[in-house]
């Protein structure tokens, strides 16, 4: 069954899809027919099965059932990802959405190799958001993670206090404390991953001084596209919704 998101909370048994891209996709690409069923997620992350009643410049649907299912983790995890080269960011976005990430913040750090001007950043973020939308549909999420505007790591220190826990995966960190930080009281977590070239020590120090924790992901050096996915998986297993 095809899955779509509406940006409002469904409060009646009628659902209107009016997003022009979705309307065209439903009519032209998917060639959905009247009386065909669709899965709809609303802005309250509720999931419904609807049937298509009319199609014009909007798709008018009728609710058949509301599904009592939650596919969103009770732990909100934001990924701050050092900007990686080539298509790695696409892999990182896709896999982190499947693993329940809340929002993704591309991070510019001293050792980031990719240089993007404002126009280039806008284009890349639009591309990554499209990947996030597709991954959210494929993994049947009820929330579409947002790929946020590029953030300079120096500005991240000011955001640390917004979280219950900020974990910086640091390749030179020797203490294996990740497990100790993952306690059930942590509901809003940020994970910070360096680019291919890793972090400068002072970048990590600034985040630790602001209240973050530098942690090791073990004795091997993981690729940047592996590190965030690994950390997200561990968090969802330890305190998130993979093992609960
Ligand atoms: N250039 C670095 C070096 O050669 O040591 C490696 C950087 S690694 C490819 C990219 C990022 O993945 C790191 O900045 C860190 O965030 C994360 N990472 C990789 N392996 C890690 C480990 N064993 N412990 C903690 N973080 C790790």
Describe the protein.
This protein is an alpha/beta fold. It folds into two domains: 65 residues, Hypothetical PUA domain-like, domain 1 (Ribosomal Protein L25, Chain P, Beta Barrel), CATH 2.40.240; 163 residues, SPOUT methyltransferase, trefoil knot domain (Alpha/beta knot), CATH 3.40.1280.10. Helix content is 30%, strand content 25%. It is built from seven helices and twelve strands. Strands 6, 7, 8, 9, 10, 11 and 12 form a seven-stranded parallel sheet that branches. Strands 1-3-4-5-2 form a five-stranded mixed sheet, covered by helices on one side. Helix 2 runs parallel beside helix 7. The longest helix has 21 residues. It starts with a strand and ends in a 6-residue tail after the last helix. The mean pLDDT is 96. S-adenosylmethionine (SAM) binds next to helix 7.
């Amino acid at each position: 069954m095809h899955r779509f998101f509406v940006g409002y909370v469904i409060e009646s048994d009628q659902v209107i899809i009016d997003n022009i891209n979705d309307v065209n996709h439903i009519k032209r690409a998917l060639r959905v027919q009247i009386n065909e069923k669709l899965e709809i997620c609303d802005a309250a992350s509720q999931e419904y099965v609807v049937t298509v009643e009319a199609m014009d410049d909007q798709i008018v649907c009728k609710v058949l059932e509301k599904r009592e299912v939650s596919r969103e983790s009770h732990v909100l995890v934001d990924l701050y990802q050092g900007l990686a080269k080539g298509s790695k960011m696409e892999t990182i976005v896709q896999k982190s959405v499947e693993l329940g990430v809340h929002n993704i913040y591309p991070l510019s750090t001293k050792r980031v190799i990719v240089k993007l001007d404002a126009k280039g950043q806008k284009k890349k973020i639009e591309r990554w958001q499209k990947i996030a939308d597709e991954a959210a549909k494929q993994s049947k999420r009820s929330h579409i993670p947002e790929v946020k505007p590029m953030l300079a790591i120096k500005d991240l220190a000011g955001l640390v206090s917004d979280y219950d826990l900020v974990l910086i995966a640091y390749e030179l960190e020797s203490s294996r404390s990740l497990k100790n930080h993952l306690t059930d009281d942590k509901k809003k977590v940020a994970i910070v991953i360096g680019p291919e070239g890793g972090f400068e020590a002072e970048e990590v120090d600034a985040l630790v001084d602001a209240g973050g924790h530098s942690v090791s992901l073990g004795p091997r050096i993981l690729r940047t596209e592996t590190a965030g996915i690994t950390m997200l998986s561990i968090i969802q297993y330890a305190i998130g919704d993979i093992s609960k």
